[in-house]
Design brief:
This protein has 17 helices and 2 strands. By secondary structure, the chain is mostly helical.
Length: 310
């Protein structure tokens, strides 16, 4: 935003010319213009405060992309600073609107209230925030804060995807692939999965790999599927490791094409990947435990939230 400078020097120079009446009119016009611009700038103040708020709360673009809501709210000190965040949101700070939505949705710093969460997500989405669009889609899909509505959820996921949100691309593609909220369209779904994968989203890499492995909406290509699973695994995604293990265990040619080794390499690598997934816990751990038992007869013991597979 450009700062409007004083016209004092210009007016002084002009006052020495032979057109004092014209100059007086010009000076008056400039003064009126400056006043009107100043008034208009007051409407823009909340927009400029977004960057200030981000610096104040210490939340980075990487945080918004990769971290959990609880982590983000912790960085914003929402437990003790919620009233400050709420005031900024009421002053039209878009990031604060999103933080308010998260705080109300998760009950951090304020009593959990999904209706209030939806209110602030709508406000942030109206201002163009793609994360708010994504969260609104999720709430509509799950029937939280709104009546469950797959069509409305799909609309919000598409808005988030079009705004460049990679997770929105994944969710919109999933709705199309399953025919939820829109006509089933596996080809378009695969296109969105590919966009998410190419944007660096690990979930997108896995689900695009699934489409390639199965030939869903795109030509079947297990080699390329393995490449995307490997990229997801390298990014730390447990499902990427699990699916890569599946390919290694079931397709020896894929394993040999990926690395030169003896004929048992794929079995050792699949076991290694599945053991890592089981040990890490999370949603994919049980699948890895089942696969180790089914394919190799390996039993795993649950230790806390994780598994030990000897």
């Amino acid at each position: 935003m450009q700062t409007i400078r004083s016209f004092g020097i210009v007016m002084t120079d002009l006052s020495q010319t032979i057109f004092p009446k014209i100059l007086l009119a010009i000076a008056l016009l400039l003064a009126i213009t400056f006043f009107l611009v100043s008034c208009n700038r007051s409407d823009e103040t909340p927009k400029s405060s977004v960057n200030l708020a981000s610096a104040k709360w210490g939340i980075t673009a990487e945080d918004w992309q990769n971290q959990s809501p609880t982590h983000i709210l912790s960085k914003a000190n929402a437990e003790t600073k919620f009233q400050d965040i709420l005031q900024a949101a009421q002053n039209q700070n878009v990031e604060a609107m999103l933080l308010c939505g998260l705080a109300y949705e998760w009950g951090i710093g304020v009593a959990k209230n999904e209706a209030d969460a939806a209110h602030w997500y709508r406000a942030a989405a109206a201002a163009g925030n793609p994360i708010a669009m994504l969260n609104l889609g999720t709430m509509h899909a799950e029937g939280r804060g709104f009546p469950k509505n797959a069509a409305t959820a799909t609309k919000w996921f598409l808005d988030a995807a079009n705004a460049g949100n990679a997770q929105g691309m994944v969710f919109y593609g999933a709705m199309l692939a399953n025919g939820e909220g829109a006509a089933k369209d596996e080809a378009t779904a695969a296109t969105w999965f590919q966009k998410a994968a190419e944007a660096g989203n690990p979930s997108g890499m896995v689900i695009f790999g699934n489409a390639l492995a199965k030939g869903s909406g795109i030509a079947k290509d297990e080699r390329e599927a393995a490449d995307w699973y490997r990229k997801a695994a390298e990014a730390g995604d447990a499902f990427g490791k699990f699916q890569l293990g599946n390919l290694y265990a079931s397709n020896a040619s894929i394993a040999r094409n990926l690395i030169e080794a003896n004929e048992n390499w794929q079995n050792r690598e699949a076991q290694k990947l599945w053991r890592e997934v089981a040990a890490s816990g999370g949603n994919a751990a049980k699948d890895a435990v089942d696969a180790l038992k089914r394919v190799y007869g390996i039993d795993c013991v649950k230790v806390g939230e994780n598994y030990r597979c000897d």
